[in-house]
């Protein structure tokens, strides 16, 4: 397996133009049969996906992932984003720097948690680039749906106190494996920063967007969610399965599994489900 690390610069018109984003790639020694673009979740980073990448490389796939603006080794304020489009700008830049052979192979978009929301909204304008998409525990619906009043307050705070921390995540909801939780809490690239008022408002706005426009997504999609996920609602994946316009779509709900299904004790089965699906649907 080959592993490479580098950085890219966000270009105009991004609201974070000039900032550096870290990214890394894993690829097999022989030519890959497809390219996976991995989109990580909130307050984590691409380095937490080494096991995921190893599994995919062993199945013949190349994996490319960046640390979002405000995450991991990338520039930006932790817990904050000036505009949700900055995440999409990062994906544009990551894909643009792929070697020619990487762009010519089938591309699969894989998004987890906040990364699932980023990936889903990115598909609304960019799905023609991809052969298929996979969303793991996507943040499509909140575990407690925000009221109209809360949305109004969120928009107000986003304007007057955009960097105010308003929502923390419970690390115990990450995985049933105590070592995964302990490693997450000890990870120096996991800041523990609360979601800011601006990011919370941007997330709610984009959740509304994808719920409204889900039917515009027509490429093959696999939706994967732990039924005991306390951080993002499984109902969001159920909603997408019912409402996206894709002819080829599959919803896999995993009883007892928590939020990070790729880091649960059953991760080998989950990852095999994913790569088997890619083999059957996107790389025939």
Report on the structure:
- This protein is α/β, with parallel strands linked by helices and 284 residues long.
- The protein has a single domain, classed as Rossmann fold, CATH 3.40.50.1820.
- It is built from nine helices and ten strands.
- An eight-stranded mixed beta sheet has the order 1-2-4-3-5-6-9-10, sandwiched between helices. The chain has a two-stranded antiparallel sheet with strand order 7-8.
- α4 (114-126) links the parallel β5 (107-112) and β6 (132-136).
- It is globular, with a radius of gyration of 18 Å.
- It starts with a strand and ends with a helix.
Which characteristics define this entry?
single chain, 284 residues, alpha/beta, Rossmann fold, 8-stranded mixed β-sheet, two-stranded antiparallel sheet, 9 helices
What is the strand and helix layout of this fold?
Layout: E1 2-9, E2 20-27, E3 34-39, H1 50-58, E4 61-66, H2 85-96, H3 100-104, E5 107-112, H4 114-126, E6 132-136, H5 148-160, E7 165-167, H6 178-186, E8 195-196, H7 197-213, E9 221-226, H8 234-243, E10 249-254, H9 267-281
Can you tell me the CATH superfamily? Answer: Alpha/Beta hydrolase fold, catalytic domain
Low-confidence parts, pLDDT < 50 over ≥5 residues? Answer: none
Strand content: 15-25%
Main sheet: strand order: 1-2-4-3-5-6-9-10
Give, in order, the helices and strands.
Answer: EEEHEHHEHEHEHEHEHEH
Q: What name does CATH use for the topology? A: Rossmann fold
Number of strands: 10
> Number of helix segments?
9
Structurally, the number of domains stands at 1
**Shape field:** globular
Calculate Rg over CA atoms: 18 Å
What is the terminal-to-terminal distance?
23 Å
Q: How would you characterize the largest beta sheet?
A: 8 strands, mixed
CATH architecture: 3-Layer(aba) Sandwich
**Roughly what is the average pLDDT, rounded to an integer?**
94
Helix content: 25-40%
> Which CATH first-tier class would you pick?
Alpha Beta
Structural class: alpha/beta
